[in-house]
Amino acid sequence: MSSVKKPEIMAIEGIPDWEKRLARVDAFWDRQILDRPVVCVCAPKNDPRYPQQPIKTYASHRDRWMDFECIADCALADVMNREYLGEALPHMCPNLGPEIFNAYLGMELEFGEVTSWSRPNLHAWSGLDAIAFDPANAYWRAISDLTDILLAKGKGKFYTGLTDFHPGGDAAAAFRDPQQFNIDLIESPDEAKRLVRKVTDLYLRVFDLSWGRLRAAEQAIVSWPGIVSTRKWYVPSNDFSCMVSPAMFNEFFLPGLIEECRALEASIYHLDGVNALGHLDSLLEIKELNAIQWVYGAGHGRSSDWMPVYKRCQAAGKGLQFWLEPDEFDLFMEQLRPEGLFISTTVGSKEEGEALLRKVARWR
Questions:
Q1: Which of 125, 145, 268, 346 is most buried, by the most CB atoms less than 10 A from its CB?
Q2: Strand, helix or coil at 119?
Q3: pLDDT tens-digit readout, 110-167
Q4: Are 234 and 267 in contact (CB under 8 A)?
């Protein structure tokens, strides 16, 4: 029998057990544990000494977003002034907003203070065939440049990750405008399906190019959910799904999500908002999907208020990623199996984090 060669991964200075941390995360994908569930704990250093970047002023929001040297320097300062405990590993993902994938395909971005958004440009279905990915695209080059700068500044200090793609239904809705795309699903279902098919095909190509770039640089794979792994993984999602019925979700979007999962070694679905819970049964039936990240949203309590959802996912054989406040751990240790859990939290000090990890070590 031939064994699969493990990828070469860059070591992180000051974290001697980085390989053990990655091994625990890789076990999470298989709903297993090495010794305890994955717990990522971050805390400020007691004596932060790495110099922070001076505050700068810019002529526009776009100029600030495009100051890649400053972004990378701020990322490095943040990493150097933080404690990473449990399975937490320092990382930074290039980011120009959640619709950057649409920008790769020819849309223009508007930049605000904390996010960006694209301008819908598919005003007639006759333009669908013209949607394409060009490696000379300015936004693709921008993310490539930012990635290169992060790779250089982060060498040995943090992992550089994948950007937030938001393909599938979200990308299709952005091309048409979400309100118009709702109408399209009823009045132009064939064209809507062609658009989803188009963006899915292009996304799979763009993802492989992006992933390959990081693997060539010996990076562990990480993106915005904060999971750092040796696996080829990503986070399928469809925030637009909050607007459609389960029947429409299954007809228009589920096939593409299954394709996304099949193209990966591991995957975690970002289930965002109480209106998206109606699609959970369909998602749990995707055999290639490893885990669910349930985000209930502001104003809907805490993680401990949603225990029935977590139990439902575990009963279906899926892993889970969620955020816990330190005082919620006891309840979860009583109610859930430890296999296949990825938990993130923040504490006030390294000592608090170490005490929490000693408690979690009993969760077997």
A1: 268
A2: coil
A3: 999 999 999 999 999 999 999 999 999 999 999 999 999 999 999 999 999 999 999 9
A4: yes
State how far Cα 290 lies from the chain centre: 14
Q: How far, in Å, are 234, 257, 268 from residue 286 at the CA level? A: 15, 9, 11
Sequential DSSP letters for 314-336: HHTT-EEEEE--GGGHHHHHHHS
pLDDT per residue over 300-322, tens digit each? 999 999 999 999 999 999 999 99
Do 108 and 119 touch, CB atoms closer than 8 A? Answer: yes
Token pair belonging to 346: 């923040």
> What is the C-alpha radius of gyration for the chain, rounded to an integer number of angstroms?
21
CA angle 303, 321, 80 (to 5 degrees): 100
DSSP SS3 for 93: coil
Cβ within 8 Å of residue 302, ≥6 positions away: 325, 328
**Quick one: 111 exposed, middle or buried, by C-beta within 10 A (0-12, 13-18, 19+)?**
middle
| Prediction pTM value | 0.95
pLDDT over 90 at 4, yes or no: no
Q: In the chain, what are the domains?
A: 18-360 (3.20.20.210)
For residue 299, is it left (φ>0), alpha (ψ between -120 and 50) or beta?
left
Interstrand relation of 291-295 and 38-44 (parallel, antiparallel or unpaired): unpaired
